[in-house]
Amino acid sequence: MRHGLYFLFFLLWDGRLLEGSNVERQLMEDLLTNYIKVLPVETPNTSLVVSFRLILFRIIELDERNQALVTNVEVVQRWNDAHLKWNASDYGGIKQTMIPYDSIWTPDIILYNSAAMDYSNRVLTTNAIVSSTGDVTLLTAAIFRSVCDVDVSYFPFDIQNCTMRFMSWTQDETRIQMKLDHNKTIELKTYIEDEEFTLESYDAKWLEVEDPCCPKPFSTVDYVIQIKRRAAFFVINYVLPMIDINVIGMTSPLSSGEKVTLGISTMLTIIFFLMSIRDVLPPSENFPLIGKFYFASICLVSMEVALAILTLFLHHLKDIRVQKMCRMLAKLSCMKEPRFRNVKGEPRENKKGKMEFTDGLPPPFLYGDKIASSRRPCWKSPVERMKKELMTGTIDTYTI
């Protein structure tokens, strides 16, 4: 008895399902039998208002080399189709149904500044949600690749502004009037943060744009995405190692004998890092900030190597060329020229009766106290006069 009641209930419930399915099938037949894919307006020469919203899921990639932004988004379009209206009471109270998008008229609104060759393969559209009042909602999931003018002047501390422009491809504002339905809270509700960039702002604006193809302007919607690069990766892997190498090279003593070799190795390392950065950045006239840092490092290391070579050269000079080189360096650095003592000559008595060399410097050995001298020390001792008998005569000498 119990099993018989269950079987009867199943038959009745299955009949209700079949009845509901038949009603919806009849609704689909009535809506699409004489349906023609034309602009669904009741009055001729009037424009159709299409509400537009772009929901951002995540930023996949910013291709600096090719200047393109890859995003994962969902496009929400809403409009009213005058040919898709019905009385819900005539169809079992059905107020909403799903219709394949290719069976009805849909606006040809696309990403105008797309940089993808396979645009159609990046867009997924399934069914349109149609209500009894004729309101149609079309949801489209897409992975867009849009053109983005990348400015690398402050790389890797740069902020990029990328614009995604949406407009109809063939119908101007007299046929399709786009309406911006921007709600930042809803559009970023499912946004996933990127590891390389942070989202600074997400704004949208409506405007009219003239196209060279047509005399009348087009209604467009622009979404501006402002992103900021996370610079920690480049600072740790490209900036800090270079600072350490430069500090080690500059503080190494010249007497170690490896300063010139270390400087040349540092220059090669900087060039290697610069070439690795070049493969990431686009060819542009704007010199990036990290490139300026590497260029300044190369100049400093080059000067360091040149001064080290000059110091070694002066260190190994032992004749009169030392004086000439020191005088030349003094002139180049706007310093007072040094005065050198002629050790080969003999002191002479000047007009005041004092002994001095030909260059005007007093002889240090005529004084008992120690005086400042950079060539040889003078000892505190009395001056003694000695005589020696030679074969040719006697010569007075001064000894200390």
UniProtKB/TrEMBL annotation:
> Does 4Fe-4S count among this protein's keywords?
no
Against InterPro entries, the record matches this protein to: Neur_chan_lig-bd (IPR006202), Neur_chan_lig-bd_sf (IPR036734), Neur_channel (IPR006201), Neuro-gated_channel_TM_sf (IPR036719), Neuro_actylchol_rec (IPR038050), Neurotrans-gated_channel_TM (IPR006029), Neurotransmitter_ion_chnl_CS (IPR018000), Nicotinic_acetylcholine_rcpt (IPR002394)
Keywords in UniProt for this one? Cell membrane, Disulfide bond, Glycoprotein, Ion channel, Ion transport, Ligand-gated ion channel, Membrane, Postsynaptic cell membrane, Receptor, Signal, Synapse, Transmembrane, Transmembrane helix, Transport
Which Pfam families does the protein's record reference?
A: Neur_chan_LBD, Neur_chan_memb
Neurotransmitter-gated ion-channel ligand-binding domain segment(s) = 24-230
Where is this protein found? Postsynaptic cell membrane
Q: Which residues cross the membrane?
A: 231-248, 260-281, 293-314
Give this protein's Gene Ontology molecular function annotations.
Answer: acetylcholine-gated monoatomic cation-selective channel activity; transmembrane signaling receptor activity
In the bilayer, the protein is annotated as: Multi-pass membrane protein
Chief place where the protein resides = membrane
Could you say which residues form the signal peptide? 1-20
Q: What does UniProt give as GO cellular component?
A: postsynaptic membrane
- Database matches in Gene3D superfamilies: Neurotransmitter-gated ion-channel ligand-binding domain, Neurotransmitter-gated ion-channel transmembrane domain
Residue span, Neurotransmitter-gated ion-channel transmembrane domain: 255-353
Write down the PANTHER family for this protein, in alphabetical order: NEUROTRANSMITTER GATED ION CHANNEL (PTHR18945)
This molecule's function is given as: After binding acetylcholine, the AChR responds by an extensive change in conformation that affects all subunits and leads to opening of an ion-conducting channel across the plasma membrane.
Q: Name the family the entry cites.
A: Belongs to the ligand-gated ion channel (TC 1.A.9) family. Acetylcholine receptor (TC 1.A.9.1) subfamily.
Query: Which protein is depicted?
Result: Uncharacterized protein
